[in-house]
Amino acid sequence: MGPITLCVLLPVTVLAVVVAIAAEGNAVDDEYTWPQWKVPLVKTRRTVPLSSPNFSAHPQPELSGTCGIECQRRLPASSLGDLEQFLSYETVYENGTRTYTSVSVQGLNEVTAWPGNISSSSRHKREVYGTDTRFSISDKQFSTKYPFSTSVKISTGCSGVLVSPKHVLTAAHCVHDGKDYLDGVQKLRVGILKEKSRRGKGGKGRGGRGKGKRRKGDKDEEEVEEKEDNGGKGDRKGKGKGRKSRSRRSAESGKPSFRWTGVKKTQVPKGWFKGVSDGLAADYDYAVLELKKAPKVKHMDLGVIPSVKKLPAGRIHFSGFDDDRPGNLVYRFCSVSEESNDLLYQYCDAKPGSSGSGIYIRLKEPGKKKWTRKIIGVFSGHQWVDVNGNGMQQDYNVAVRITPLKYAQICYWVHGDSSECQVA
User: Fold this and answer.
1) Fewer CB within 10 Å: C terminus or N terminus of the chain?
2) Do residue 295 and residue 359 come from a single domain?
3) Do 231 and 294 fall into the same domain?
């Protein structure tokens, strides 16, 4: 074979370099892209009626005795039968009746392998210490716009996030203490952020409705806000200069208020109940509330991510209604210090009231340039964690992550059809 000429070698070399650069670019790009997961199917086996709850439990500002990441490493793996029992659930309806639904799980072995535990030696105490890294989103221009508008307030004192036009994801302990439903769940309500209007006699003043015909109960909040910010019509226009400063003060000092909506039904996994998933209750600290009426506010979809710490930025975000800042939506972002298959420990400053907030990240849709925020977990809150299973307690910020199996269950609760939930 004769010598290969330089004119042949150069194109081949250039092609190899281009392919290598493209491959490296695709690898980096994949880190910023939502992974696609085939999820198992959760299907109803049987639904039976139960007696009405007592609604006698009281909210607990801090949970204790949680078997944390280190403790759970000592526990045996759950069997399929165990998982089906943990994912079976109770439903409480607005009239106080209750049912129990047993489920079957299909296709669990077909799910892409879920990563093992990822350890880190760093620990940070919860609450606010040192510099407070939280941001109060009190301006109506931001708090009533996506993604902050997806955050809702639960009447039991927690937060939640809209995951469909009429479904709210929150923490299970916000409605149930593991033994009984909280007092108040029988009349549970969800507060949706809206612009606070200053309404004097006759509906005048900044944010007023004039003759009261501009905004109805089911009016889209963002459409209303846009109209009011454009000045509206009628009485507010041309009523003298004296109104201007008062209007400005009202707009600047007025904090977002809530439009309260009743809850049609509440669904809680049996894995959260005492004595059902010993040592694993924290993994199932989530619940879904179906609203009586859709608030016509953009919701946030669920997402599944194998490792938060391996993301380029490694940060999570969430917003809630912390008790120490009443009337304000509080936003924060931070890094995850440790994660397991079902739990996240993170650094975020938080106070009671933010429990139940949806934890989200932002990645690109596969094959597209569009960036999308999705919920990857539920903020459970400040918990006293049993570290090694020997009763020694440490306090951490704990969040429940969305796994393929939990995605399948929550999606089934939202859509009522498991065929809608085969890919996350």
Assistant:
1) N
2) yes
3) no
